[in-house]
Amino acid sequence: xxxxxxxxxxxxxxxxxxxxxxxxxxxxxxxxxxxxxxxxxxxxxxxxxxxxxxxxxxxxxxxxxxxxxxxxxxxxxxxxxxxxxxxxxxxxxxxxxxxxxxxxxxxxxxxxxxxxxxxxxxxxxxxxxxxxxxxxxxxxxxxxxxxxxxxxxxxxxxxxxxxxxxxxxxxxxxxxxxxxxxxxxxxxxxxxxxxxxxxxxxxxxxxxxxxxxxxxxxxxxxxxxxxxxxxxxxxxxxxxxxxxxxxxxxxxxxxxxxxxxxxxxxxxxxxxxxxxxxxxxxxxxxxxxxxxxxxxxxxxxxxxxxxxxxxxxxxxxxxxxxxxxxxxxxxxxxxxxxxxxxxxxxxxxxxx
Length: 352
Hints:
Elements: H1 19-22, E1 33-40, E2 44-49, E3 52-57, E4 72-76, E5 81-85, E6 91-95, E7 103-108, E8 112-118, H2 125-138, E9 141-147, H3 155-163, E10 171-174, H4 181-186, E11 195-200, H5 206-214, E12 238-241, E13 247-250, H6 263-269, H7 271-277, H8 294-300, H9 306-348
C-alpha cells in the first residue's frame, strides 16, 4: 500500500456476506442497508458496511440481548434504525450468569472457533470439551490452540490429549503465541470472508494472537505463575477486519462455560459413547452400574476412560436440567401473558 493512502473500503463479501443472506432480502427491502454488527452496547449497536461504520438504534420489540456481534441486519438509512435481523448461519450461545435459566448470545455467523488454552496447569479436558460441544452445537469448526508450547517439557503430549477428546476437532495447534510463525499456523482458517472467533481462559495468549491477526493493540496480561490462571484483558465482544482478509471476533475470557440447549453438540462430541449406550441391555439404562451396561463393560475392560464417561454424564445432566428449567420458564411466561390479556379484556369491557 502506498504511504498515505487509506485502505480500500470492505465489500459485503469481505464482511462475510453470502447467498445465504442475499436470499433473505425481499423486493421491498432493496433500499435497506445490509450491515454486520461489530459491537453492541446496551441501547445501540454499531454496524459495518461498504460505506463505513454506523451507529444503529433498536426498534421497538428488539433489544441488545437479542442480537450478537457478527449478526447481519437490515437498517433504514433514513433513521439508522435496525429493521430486522437476518437468519444466522451459526450462533454461539451459553447459559447466562445468574439464577434465571436463559440463553445468552455470544457471537453469530462464525466459521471457526479457536479454543485457546495452554500447555500448563490451565489445560483442562473438561473445559475444552465444553467449548468443543458449544462449537459443534452451532455447526462451527472447533480448533484447539495450545499456547506456551515453548515452556512445556512435552507440548506434543498436550496436543495428543486434546486431539483425543473428539475426532470432530478440526485441528489442534501447539505454539508459542509470541513467535512470528504462530500467526501463520492460524491463517488457513482466516481467508477472505471467513469469520473466526477466539474463546478460552484469560491470560493464555489469546489477546496476543488477536493483536497479531487483526493488527490491534489490545491490552495483554500474563498468567500468574502460581496457578497458571490469567487476568481478564478483553471486556466486550467485538468484530475486527484482518489485514490479510477475513474477520475476527474477540471475546472476554470465560473460565466457566455453562452450556444450554447443547444436546446435539454433546452427542456429536461423545458420539462413540452415544453409540455404545445404544447397545445397553436396557433401553432406560442410566449407565451407573446397571447390569448389561455396555459402557460399564468398556470401563471394566480398560477400553474406556472412566473420567471421560463421567464428563459425558455430567454434561448430559446439566443440559437436561437447563432444558427442563427453560421449559418451565416458558410455561410460566405463557401463563402470565394469558393472565395479562384476560385482565385487559376485563378492564376494556363496558360496565353492565
